[in-house]
Amino acid sequence: MALIDELPPLDELEKIQAKNRAQMAENRQRVLDRKARSRRLYRRGAIIEKILPKSAALSDEEFQRFLLQLIQRRNP
After folding, report:
1. 3-state SS assignment for residue 27
2. Contact 48, 55 (CB under 8 A)
3. pTM score, whole prediction
4. Quick one: which of 31, 26, 5, 30 has its CA closest to 18?
5. Any alpha helices (H) in 1-76, and if so which ranges?
6. Quick check: 25 and 36 in contact, CB under 8 A?
7. Residue 58 contacts by C-beta under 8 Å, 6 or more apart in sequence?
8. 19-37 tens-digit pLDDT
9. Rg (CA), the chain
10. How far apart are CA 37 and CA 44, in angstroms?
11. Which of 41, 37, 67, 73 is nearest to 52 (CA)?
12. Average pLDDT, rounded, for the chain
């Protein structure tokens, strides 16, 4: 009986449970958003490598410079 006496009131437990459920929903959404972003980046990278096959041989810095130069040429 001592354990039952130590438990918080039911309404307080329900508030804690609601807060935990909201946090879990937020965490699930964060994971879904991250997976969607990863998929988008993967697909766009694949599209670029398909259009510009030699871009795979460039380092990240070289690739970034290349893209910036392309953008600057098109938008002087």
Report:
1. helix
2. yes
3. 0.68
4. 26
5. 2-6, 10-51, 60-74
6. no
7. 66
8. 999 999 999 999 999 999 9
9. 25
10. 11
11. 67
12. 91
User: pLDDT by residue (tens digit) across 8-22?
Assistant: 888 999 999 999 999
pLDDT at 1 over 70: no
Burial-class residue 63 by CB neighbours within 10 Å (0-12, 13-18, 19+).
Answer: middle
How far, in whole angstroms, is CA 15 from its chain's centroid?
29
The separation between CA 46 and the C-alpha centre of its own chain, rounded to angstroms, equals: 19
Could you give the CA distance from residue 62 to residue 27 in angstroms, rounded to a whole number? 36
12: Cβ contacts below 8 Å, ≥ 6 apart: none
Q: Is 43 left (phi over 0), alpha (psi -120 to 50) or beta?
A: alpha
Amino acid at 62: E
